[in-house]
Amino acid sequence: MANKIDRVPVREQDPKVRATNFEEVCYGYNEQEAMLEASRCLNCRRPGCMMACPVSVKIPAFIEKVAAGEFEEAGRIIAMDSSLPAICGRVCPQESQCEGSCILGMKGQPVAIGKLERFVADWSRENGVFYSDKEAPNGKKVAVVGSGPAGLACASDLAKWGYDVTIFESLHKPGGVLQYGIPEFRLPKDKVVGDEIGKLKRLGIKIETNVIVGRTITIDQLIGEEGFSAVFVGSGAGLPKFMNIPGENLNGVFSANEFLTRNNLMKAYSAESDTPIYAGHKAVVVGGGNVAMDAARTALRLGAEVTIVYRRTEKELPARAEEVHHAKEEGIEFRMLSNPVEILGDEKGWVRAIRCQQMELGAPDASGRRSPVAVEGALFDIETDVVIMSLGTSPNPLIAGTTPGLEVDRRGCIVASADGATSKEYVYAGGDAVTGAATVILAMGAGRKAARAIDEKLKK
Amino acid sequence: MYEILVKKDLTPTITMMEVSAPRLAASAQPGQFLIVRTDENGERVPLTVCDYDKERGSVTIVTQKVGASSRKICALEQGESFQDVSGPLGRPSEFVGLSDEEIREKRFIFIAGGLGTAPVYPQAKYLYSRGAKVDIIVGAKSADMLILEEEMSKVCDHLYICTDDGSKGMKGLVTEKLAQLCEAGQKYDQAVSIGPMIMMKFVTMTAKKYDLPLVVSLNTLMVDGTGMCGACRVTVGGKVRFACVEGPEFDAYQVDFDEALRRQAMYKSQEVEADHKCRIRG
User: Fold this and answer.
1) Which residue in A138, A260, A355, B257 has its CB near the most CB atoms, within 10 A?
2) Distance between CA B119 and CA A254 in Å, rounded?
3) CA B270, B271, B275 angle in degrees (round to 5)?
4) Based on the number of CB atoms within 10 Å of its own CB, is A128 exposed (0-12), middle (13-18) or buried (19 or more)?
5) Of B223, B235, B266, which has the smallest distance from its Cβ to A261's Cβ?
6) What is the spatial distance between Cα B172 and Cα B182, in angstroms, rounded to a whole number?
7) Is A132 on the interface with B (CB under 8 A)?
C-alpha cells in the first residue's frame, strides 16, 4: 500500500553549521527521494490539495508524473498554473494550504507537496527545460508596477498571450520581497530568484529598474504619454509598522524591512558589500510572522544571540511551521506572551534593554483567536543591543497619492475587485498592495486573475 | 546605463558630475534627492539633486569624499557609468506648489553650508527665475572649499560668503551672517537651510530669535529611499516621520535635531566596528 510509506524526510544543513552561513537550509529531494515520496499520493478523485491551492496547481497529476519519473511532464503540468514553482515550493505555507488538505494528513503525514514542487522546478532548471508556449505578439503594451510575486505572475501570463509587457521596479534589482525580504538561506537569490526572472525575460518581458512609479513617472503618464493600454499595480506592502512605544528611535532599533534589506538586497553579510549592518551581541526580534523568523535567523547568522518576543503563544505564531522549527533548531529563544512596552537606552542613545509586559490568554476575539491580556504588574526587562521590529507592513502611499481616481481604503490598500479591477479604468491591482501583507502565492494568484481580466478588457 | 557626461572637480575633495538619467531628469523638482550605486557591491547613497536638464536628460550631483562610498563615487571618470541612479525621491520643496504670482511677491533667504550648497542651487534658481527675491548665505571652511560661487551669484540678489578662516567673504559662521542681516532689518518670508545637521541645528536656534519661518532639508541615513526601511526616521513635532517620503524638508522648529544627529552617526560609532563579531566564515 502506497500510504504505508512514511513521508520521506528532506535533507537539510546541520543546524549548528547553518547558523554560521547563509547557504540554503534545505537541500531538497533527489530523484529517488522524490519518486518515493510521490508514490505516497493516493491520487484522490476529489483532490483537497488542489482546491486549497490559491492558483489551483493540478497537484495529483504532477505528482503522478514524478512517481513515474517523468519530471519534464510534471514540470509542464505545474507550469500551466504557476509561473514561479521554484519559489512557491520553498516559501508557500503548505501546511495551511495543499498539505493541510491532504487526506494522508488526517491520520499521518501529508504528502510533501511543497518539496515535490520544488524538486520538479529545480530539476527543470538544472536540466535546462523551459516550459513556455508564447502566442504571436498582439501589439498591445501593458505596464506592470512592481516586480514582486504579483507583478511577475501577471507579466508572465500576459507575455505568454502576446502582450508587450514592461515591468517597472523601484529598487535596483527585480523580485520585490523575493529579493529584499526573504533571506538567501530560504530562497537563493541568484540560483532561484534570478533564474525565474531570467525565464520571464526570455518570454520578452522588459524590466526597467530604478523607476519609482509615483515619483519618476505616474500611472497617468504610463497610459497617456507612454502608450500603455493597461497598468497592473503590484507594488506590495513595503511600509514598516512600528509600535509607537518610548525608545523606538534609539540607535540599534531597526524595522525588519531595514535589517533584511541591508542583508538580502544589499548583501551586507558579505565582506565585499559596502553596506553596513549591525546585529549586536544580543538581538531581540518583536513579532511572530515569517518576517520575524527571517530577521531572527539572519541576526543569528551575523553573530547575535537572538530572542523572539511575541505577545501570544506559540500556537498562534503566524509563521510557517517549518520556519519556527528551523529557528528553534538553530538556537533562537522564544519568549511567548511578552509584549514590549518600552525600549531602554544607555547614555549614548543606544539600546540596552527592552521592557516587556507579561501577558496571558483571555477570551477568544472576533477572529476566533484568544487575545492576550496583560498580567497586572508583571513587567520584565531583556538586555539587548538590538531590537528588530517585525510587526507587519502596509502599502506604500506613493501610487495612491499620485493617481487621481484610484480608490484606497482607510488602511491605504488599493480597492480592487476579485479580478483586480480598480476604481480607475485600465488600472488593475493585486497582491499585498490590495490585501495588505499576505503570502507570495496569494499575490501570484491575484496577479494571474488580473492578467486574465486585463486580457478580456483589451480584447474587446 | 547612467553615463557620466561631465565630471568636474570643484575642490580637491568635492566633485560635480552630470549624469545621464532621462526619466529622472524629466520628473525632478527642487528639494528632491536621488540614490546612486557605483557598482554591484556599492551602497545605495542618497545625494541631493544639484541641477537637472530635461532636454539633455541629465542630472547634476555633487559629492564630497568623506567615506569609502563617496570615494568610490568620486573615483568614477567621465565616460564611465553608475550601476544605478534612482529617483527623484522625496517631496519637492513646498514653494513648488505656489503660483508664479505668489512666488514673485516673496523674499527668500537660503543658508547653505559645505555640500549643502549644491541642493540650494536648484531651489534658488527655480525661485529667482520666477521673480522671487532671493538672498543666499554660503558657508565654507575656506575659500578653496567654496563651491558653485559663480552659479549661485547668478540666481540671487545677494550672495554672502562666510569662511571659517576669513580667506573669502566674512570670517565667521553662517549663523553670524544671518543674525547680522536680521539685525540690520532685512525681512524674509521664508528661510531655507541646507547643510550639515549640526549647522542646521544652530541656524534653527538663530532663526528662532528673529521669528524667521525656516525649512531644513534632512540628510538622514537611508537604504531604499522609498519608505520601506525606516532608517531615516526622525521626530518632527513629536511624531515619527520618514525623511525619505515625508521629507526631506521639514519645518525646522519641529525637528528633534539631537536625535537626528545621534541617529545619523549610527554606523559611524566605533562600537559597531569593535563589537561586531560576525559568524560568517569562509
Assistant:
1) A260
2) 29
3) 120
4) exposed
5) B223
6) 16
7) no
* The domain made up of B2-89 is a member of CATH 3.40.1190.20: no
For residue A93, give the nearest of A186, A15, A22 by alpha carbon. Answer: A186
The CATH code belonging to domain B94-217 is 3.40.50.80
Q: What is the pLDDT of residues B131-169, one digit of tens each?
A: 999 999 999 999 999 999 999 999 999 999 999 999 999
One domain for residues A71 and A145: no
Burial class (CB in 10 A: 0-12, 13-18, 19+), B98: middle
ipTM of this model? 0.91
Burial class, A327, CB count within 10 angstroms (exposed 0-12 / middle 13-18 / buried 19+): buried
Q: Are A152 and A177 in contact (CB under 8 A)?
A: no
State how far the alpha carbon of A420 is from the alpha carbons of A179, A219, B157, in Å: 24, 16, 54
Q: Are residues A182 and A78 in the same domain?
A: no
Chain-chain contact of A172 with B44 (C-beta, under 8 angstroms): yes
pLDDT digits (tens, 9 = 90+) for B124-140: 999 999 999 999 999 99
Question: Rounded to whole angstroms, how far apart are CA atoms A225 and A216?
Answer: 13
Residues of B whose CB is below 8 A from A254: 230-231
Residues A224 and A249 grouped into a single domain: no
What mean pLDDT do residues A186-194 have? Answer: 94
Q: What distance in Å separates residue B18's CA from the closest CA in chain A?
A: 18
List, as ranges, residues 204-223 from B with C-beta within 8 Å of A: 223
Q: Is B259 on the interface with A (CB under 8 A)?
A: yes
- Contact criterion met (CB below 8 Å) for B253 and A242: no
User: E strands along A56-169, which residues?
Assistant: 141-145, 164-168
- In whole angstroms, give the CA distance from residue A317 to residue B226: 29
CA distance A210 to chain B (A): 5
Q: Which domain holds residue A278?
A: 242-389
Q: Which residue has the cell 538586497?
A: A265
B127: which 3 cell numbers? Answer: 525661485
Given a contact cutoff of 8 angstroms between Cβ atoms, the answer to whether A330 and A285 are in contact is no
Q: Do B227 and A276 touch (CB under 8 A)?
A: no
